[in-house]
Known about the structure:
Helix content: over 70%
Number of helices: 3
Mean pLDDT: 88
Radius of gyration: 19 Å
Order of helices and strands: HHH
Shape: elongated
Strand content: under 5%
Low-confidence stretches: none
Largest sheet: none
Distance between the termini: 26 Å
Structural class: mainly alpha
Number of strands: 0
Amino acid sequence: MRGDLKIGEVEIKIGGFVEQKRLNTMQHINSDIAEVVQDNNDLEYLQKLYEKLHLTERDRDIIDSIFFCIKSRNDRVERLAYYAGMSDAIDFLKE
């Protein structure tokens, strides 16, 4: 290892690199894959319709919590699937 670079710092640098690659990949998917672009447009339209609904604050809070939970779960699964795919690719190349 070079100089006084610690293992934790290397992990952070590699992790940051991998995370940036993942973000670039997701940006590509969200802007260039027709089906995903359509889904994103549909979500925007539905969000506008939702905002126009006459709901109580409590009902809106519950629905917002459901949306947040779904998005959070999807983001987490997407990130883990990306990392698992990278790990699988590395294992495949080692064989």
